[in-house]
Amino acid sequence: MGARAPRRPAWPTWQPRHRLRRRRHVLRALLLSGLAAVLALVALGAGAVWWGTSHYGDQVTRIPDAFPTGPRPPRPAAHDGGTTFLLAGVDSRSSKPTTGSDATTRLWRYGAQRSDTLMLVHLSVGDHRADVMSIPRDSWVGIPGHGTAKINAAFSWGGPPLMIETVERLTGTRVDHFGVIDWHGFKALTDAVGGVPITVPQDSYDPVLEQHFSAGTHVMDGEEALAYVRQRHGVPGGELDRIKHQQQFLRSLVTEIRAEVSLTDPLGTARMLDAVTRTVSVDDHMSNSDLRDLVLGLRHQDASDASFSTAPIVRSRIIRGQYALILDEDELRQRWQAVETGEAS
Length: 345
Prior knowledge:
Layout: H1 17-57, E1 61-63, E2 83-90, E3 115-123, E4 130-134, E5 140-143, E6 147-150, H2 153-171, E7 177-182, H3 183-192, E8 196-200, E9 204-206, E10 211-213, E11 216-220, H4 222-230, H5 239-260, H6 266-279, E12 281-283, H7 288-298, E13 306-310, E14 313-319, E15 322-327, H8 329-340
Parallel strand pairs: 1-12, 2-7, 4-13
Antiparallel strand pairs: 2-3, 3-4, 5-6, 7-12, 8-11, 9-10, 14-15
Helix pairs in contact: 1-6, 1-7, 3-4, 3-6, 4-5
């Protein structure tokens, strides 16, 4: 018998060209469908963020007439186009909230509260850089219409307008927006993000607050975090260590907020917007679109993008029986101008 022809395998390794073309078309259609689904999800998330910032923006507590009515500093000629915020934490000892939509009593009454924390924050455009400068509450400065005193007295005597005017004259900068939170809001916002991780460098005890702090990393709830950012007794640097605690907390809080704000997690974004709405008050010049830009900008912020500093201090003194810090005001102005013109290192 002659040799048999080889049998074709049951599953051929060859395919007609029309089948290969059809498979390519199917694969391309699947890829395009997947891409369309991803884009749809992103668009849905972006739409949710847009709706959320508009919805919650309408509920943000605006401070009427927050800015001074007199002449204000011009922006530097080489200004980078960014935005400068003045953030204040007030030590209102009211039993009721005074900031945010949770507020049930007035933000400011003459002599009722002082600014416990004061920070200038400049958000640049393009590179998403944030520069934060803390101004110590014990800084001895000129307060318009009141002579010289600690800077935290400005809020006590004249509320947001006098606070802003004092800082603008001190720094030579123009404040674009103002935000304030009280102790109640601070605790509520901290709890809203599930607590904030803080690394305590060493064991300490604050005899005034009657609070122990143990070395190590702890996720602090609102009560613990408030005590930590207020601590200035029982630590070697006193007021300067307290500023370090405040900056450390802010850096960690922004990281936690950033984790919640996402185009693909509209529910997390809504929760965060709700928490901020309930606890923070802002100036009445801040529009919903300003808030939206701020929220979306947080998505790009990382701890490495933020630079923290403290207003330059010359020395401490006892003035009128009060502990006070004397600032190098010329150096302060030069540093902040470098920030606003993008020349800061």
